[in-house]
Amino acid sequence: MDKLLIAGGIPLSGEVAISGAKNAALPLLCAALLTKEPVTFTNVPHLNDIGTMLKLLAQMGVKVSREAAVPAGTQSAGAGDTVTLDAAGLDNAVAPYEMVKTMRASILVLGPLVARAGEARVSLPGGCAIGARPVDQHIKGLTAMGAEINVEQGYVHARATRLKGARLFTDMVTVTGTENLMMAACLAQGETVIENAAREPEVVDLANCLIAMGARISGAGGDVIRIQGVEALHGATHRIMPDRIETGTYLCAAAATGGEVRLTGASATSLDAVIDKLMDTGCEIVAERDAIRLKAPRRLTAVSVRTAPYPAFPTDMQAQFMAINAVADGTAVMRETIFENRFMHAVELIRLGADIKIDGNTAFVKGVAKLDGATVMATDLRASASLVIAGLVAQGETLIERIYHLDRGYEGLEQKLAALGADIRRVK
Ligand code: EPZ
């Protein structure tokens, strides 16, 4: 099992390129199931989760071709891979447990398979470290569109000769729920309206690609999305949007280490809430056309956050901000309202010397003068990022175990951080 060894205390400085967004690429790859024609994606991030999704699609009969870009973590902006998927030969509408258990985003094949093939057998994703992660809203929506769905032996079995447009309302805002139902609705008979839809930029990126494929969608980015079903979709080429969570993570790392960085291929427009909060910590931030610059103050001011669906402060940035608050001046109150168990990084930060008290879904973080390196354990993707940031700040060496979590969502992490001056290396 790989580990990351970090010698902390070095302010980050310099420039790195932001990769394509994992959480846009995952639903987009599934959208290729909706047509018999090839779909090409550019700026695809080179990540383990992407590899898992491509394997899942290939075992369904989808032809996958992937041209790797220049080595991961290089300086050139948007160097991502080019991936072409051809689902003409789709002949196995099954997502098996062995593959789904490693990546719950596999549930995103459900809607497209029912819409295109009239049936699907998809393993229930099961929970993960941050919560139970049920998919009842995905099932409720497809049922409302006329699918026959039953759940047995841990699999969702769905069948529909042709889905019918319906008026859908999700009980809570769900990103992949919105994406699954929007994809299914593209080939349904008639109009589908999704109320209480997720407004995340990744939903908009997916809608833009579906429209390029011939879908008739309006309202994506708002909380009501209308889809007029069509008979078939055709091929298209789509460039994956920049990863706003990767961008936020590097901004936090530069802020926490008192550094000054420029992130290229990054878009500030999808990060308003995060940039606002970083400015409240005392950072100077300049948004260029497709880059973001940050200059940190000598000492950060603690900042309270409350996670909520887009455009509010994203849950995927909560762990990274806890690392910032661990060494900031003052006390921060951090409310996690999306997932029921997303504070596992707190106990690991405490091992590095942080002063954090957890009470239900609220964390009280009292900034300390310094953190001291130690051995810590990653538990989920963004918790791992939080530990990396803390390791970059801590005095002495920090060894982070179970970093396979990081490899799922951060392309060339140690190369990019080393390019910014960090003393970081992967050890067996
Ligand atoms: C997406 O997960 C992201 N993943 C997550 O990013 C992100 O944290 C999350 O949205 C929230 O922004 C991808 O896009 C691949 P939800 P998703 O459905 O869609 C509950 C990362 O680090 N819920 O919006 O699975 C659910 O339990 C990952 O990149 C139901 O109860 O999240 C949660 O409490 C982590 N029933 C809340 O809604 C359902 O049917 C929001 O979940 C669906 C969701």
Say which molecules are bound, naming each kind only once.
ligand EPZ
Instruction: Determine the N-to-C terminus distance.
Output: 6 Å
What is the SS-derived class? Answer: alpha/beta
What's the total helix number? 14
So what's the overall shape?
globular
Mean pLDDT: 95
What is the tally of beta strands? 24
pLDDT < 50 stretches? none
Question: How would you describe this protein?
Answer:
The chain is an alpha/beta fold and 428 residues long. The chain contains 14 helices and 24 strands. It has helices at 22-31, 48-58, 97-100, 110-117, 136-144, 175-185, 201-212, 244-256, 272-280, 318-326, 344-351, 381-393, 404-409, 413-419, and strands spanning 3-7, 13-17, 39-44, 63-67, 81-86, 94-95, 119-123, 148-152, 155-159, 167-169, 191-195, 216-218, 224-228, 236-239, 260-264, 284-287, 291-295, 305-306, 331-335, 355-359, 362-366, 375-377, 397-401, 423-427. The strands form 6 sheets. The protein has a 4-stranded mixed sheet with strand order 22-23-1-24. β18, α10 and β19 (331-335) form a beta-alpha-beta unit. α5 packs parallel to α6 (175-185). The longest helix has 13 residues, at 244-256. The termini are close together. It binds ligand EPZ. Ligand EPZ is lined by residues 23, 26, 105, 131, 133-138, 172, 174-177, 315-316, 338-339, 381-382, 409.
